[in-house]
Amino acid sequence: MKFNPKEFFSKRHILNNIGLKIISVLVAIILWILVINITDPLQTRTFRNVPVRLVNTTVVGSNKTVRVLKHSDVVSEVVVRAPRSIIGQLGTSSDNIIATADFSNLSADNKTVPISFTTFKYSDRIDNIKSNNDKLLVEIEDKKTIQLPIQVTTSGSIASGYIKGKVSLGQNQVRVSGPESVVSLVKSASVDVQLTDFTENISTVSDIILFDVNGNIVPDDELTLSVESISVDVEILATKKVPIRYDTIGSPADGYALTGEIKCTPETVVIAGPTNNIASVTQIEIPATELNVTGQTDTLTAVLDIENYLPEGIRLVEDPNNNGKVQLSVYIEALHTNTYGIYLQNVKMQNLPEGFTAEWAEAEDNVEFTLEGLTQDFEKLQISSLNYRVDFIKHASDYAVSEYKPGTYQLDLILDLPAGITQKEKVRLKIHLDKKEGEGRAE
């Protein structure tokens, strides 16, 4: 039988057994779907803790900041439904899921941004993606920027015999930017350096830490710092206790004398410096010119800055009991005079010229002499121990006597005086010399 297309596509032919034909088509479709599902069925996979990318945040304005609330920038659960083969290709890592919060779709009340989801690959084969959170919760705030000085703190116990010296920072200022409510909490910025057991200079890099008014740390995860860490150099200095040495120059006014007592407060100081420099320092010397007693009639007191007399490279260690000053008091008192008497018989004649005899030519046996000194020195004076004498050799030297001849001479009374006591005026004693018998007599 010959095929007749016109008859085959005629209305009568098409409507013939129409119900059976429709059922056949539906059965074919169902069979096709069943085959497809049997060979690559749909499956679901749950991805956890998917981070949300924030895009187009600039739409809020450069003078505003975005704060994410309640950790809504991490979606705890995302369920992907796709053919088994695609699910297998996606793996299990949340990195394969793209969660995006586009601020172009920011809600009218500026509080939420819808989160859209897709995958890095095979997105066109994904049946659907559902999540337990599809909104980013935000708070839009004014942006605030402050600038703070960077302070340095140290922790730990430095090695015994050493102290912290000069501290140098790579920079001393930091700018802090972020939400006004957070930046307003920040009151100070500092870095900390650990000093435990160090005996040499420290060079390190330390992170900047922000603090509130109560000294509590302000988290910086919502803040932007112009620099997050800086270099810090800490000088470590050796210490040493040394005495203060001093002297005077000049003489007090006539009738006055130094008592010999100089009071120094403090008597010692603790100095610090590099080990090599400090080793040679054994004392701190105050120049005598600082204690010029010329013409003084009373105690001379000088208050001096110790730092002015320290060798180069040496510094004074801070002492709560001392302000870096030394007070020196040079005691001066008026001289006193006392007059004493001695019998000539107690005065020795020394170095009598050979071949001569000598005898006192004084009218009276008692001779007076006057001594001058401080009260404290007179209190220690023992008159009986002064060793009274005259000396012919000393007389010849002092008065240019080349040769002794018979006659009368005036010799100085010599006394062995203790320190601080002087003879006010010379006492000259008359002595008559005569040749010994058999050696000629004086005319």
Low-confidence stretches: none
CATH architecture level-2 label of the largest domain: Beta Complex
Level-1 CATH class name of the largest domain:
Mainly Beta
Which structural class should the secondary elements be placed in? Answer: mainly beta
User: What's the gyration radius in Å?
Assistant: 55 Å
Number of strands: 28
CATH topology of the largest domain: RNA Polymerase Alpha Subunit, Chain A, domain 2
Strand composition percent:
35-45%
Terminal CA distance reads: 206 Å
> What is the residue-mean pLDDT, rounded to a whole number?
89
Structural domain count: 5
**CA-based shape:** rod-shaped
Please give the structural blueprint.
Elements: H1 5-8, H2 11-15, H3 18-39, E1 42-55, E2 64-68, E3 74-83, H4 84-90, E4 97-102, E5 112-119, E6 128-131, E7 135-155, E8 162-169, E9 173-179, H5 180-183, E10 188-194, E11 202-207, E12 209-211, E13 224-225, E14 229-245, E15 256-265, E16 268-273, H6 275-278, E17 284-285, E18 300-305, E19 315-316, E20 325-334, E21 336-343, E22 348-350, E23 356-360, E24 366-373, H7 375-378, E25 389-391, H8 392-398, E26 407-412, E27 421-423, E28 428-435
Parallel strand pairs: 1-4, 7-10, 14-17, 22-25
Antiparallel strand pairs: 1-3, 2-7, 3-6, 4-5, 5-7, 7-9, 8-14, 9-13, 10-12, 11-14, 14-16, 15-20, 16-19, 18-20, 21-24, 23-28, 24-27, 26-28
